Amino acid sequence: MAKRPEIVRDVAGLRKLVAGWRRSGRRIALVPTMGALHDGHLALIAAARRHADRVVVSIFVNPTQFAPHEDFDAYPRDEAGDIARAQTAKASAVYAPGMAAMYSDAFATRIDVAGVSQGLCGASRPHHFAGVATVVTKLLLQALPDVALFGEKDYQQLMVVRRLVADLDIPVDIIGVPTLREADGLAMSSRNARLTPEERAVAPVLHRILEALADDLARGRVIDEALAQGRSDLALAGFRLDYLEVREAVGLTPVEGLVAGPARLLAAAHLGRVRLIDNVPVRLRNPQDDPPAGRRQVAGGFRVGGQ
Ligand code: AMP
Question: Has this prediction a pTM greater than 0.85?
Answer without folding.
Answer: yes
